[in-house]
Design a protein that fits this description.
Strand order of the largest sheet: 3-2-1-4-5-6-10-8
Oligomer: single chain
Number of strands: 10
Distance between the termini: 21 Å
Order of helices and strands: EHEHEHEHEHEEEEHE
Shape: globular
Largest sheet: 8 strands, mixed
Structural class: alpha/beta
Number of domains: 1
CATH topology: Rossmann fold
Radius of gyration: 16 Å
């Protein structure tokens, strides 16, 4: 795809699911801009072919300036998040800034990587997990709600427990809010890269798990992608 058609902005590309998505998108030949909080991963991502802007998602002005000054935006993908121990997590405020900037930039789609346990999918997790992750899940739910209310075409992806093992190609998407399981970061990335602009995933909230680890909802339906 020519860059004149618009680029993809990726927040969280320095590690984890975001890094795997960056690799996958570049393998597809997609033009990708990365918003990084620090310069540490910048050289590696630039070698990969990403255009890097250093800026904190919690800095509303910096995010707005970055996204609105880069030309047409086909999509914004956010994988940013924190842990319950963090004093300042980007899950809510950082994603809110990205969503608002995407609106101003006229983005065609916003893909938010959230988590099983957010919103109505609380039912899928045991109480002990909900207690441990409660503050983070609450922030993620607020980000989801803000995205849905923004008017942007969206896809919300809620992964199960994440691992750094090699991809299994057994990852699946489902609209069931009662299913849980685990999945590799690489498999999450592969599904995101297949579905980020698909009509089938537009304005949907989807759990993503490895089908061999699924539990909680024996009758969940797989979204064919």
């Amino acid at each position: 795809m020519a860059e004149a058609d618009g680029a993809i902005w990726l927040a969280g590309a320095s590690r984890g699911v975001g890094y795997e998505i960056a690799r996958c998108l570049r393998a597809q030949g997609q033009p990708v801009y990365a918003l990084l909080r620090s310069q540490q991963a910048q050289p590696e991502l630039e070698v990969m072919g990403l255009s890097v802007t250093v800026g904190d998602a919690l800095d509303r002005q910096a995010v707005m300036q970055a996204l609105t000054a880069s030309g047409p935006v086909r999509a914004v993908i956010s994988t940013i998040g924190g842990s319950p121990q963090d004093e300042q997590r980007p899950d809510r405020a950082g994603n809110r800034n990205l969503i608002d900037a995407a609106v101003q930039a006229g983005a065609e789609r916003f893909i938010l990587i959230s988590s099983i346990g957010s919103g109505e999918s609380q039912q899928a997790l045991p109480q002990r997990a909900l207690e441990a992750l409660g503050p983070v899940l609450a922030d993620k739910e607020q980000a989801e709600r803000h995205l849905i209310a923004s008017g942007l075409p969206y896809t919300i992806i809620r992964p199960g427990g994440l691992s750094s093992e090699p991809a299994t190609d057994r990852g699946i998407l489902t609209e069931s809010a009662a299913v849980a399981g685990s999945i590799t970061r690489a498999d999450v990335a592969r599904l995101v890269c297949r579905g980020w602009n698909a009509d089938l995933t537009r304005n949907r909230v989807l759990a993503v798990i490895d089908r061999d680890t699924a539990y909680g909802d024996p009758n969940f339906e797989v979204l064919p992608l």
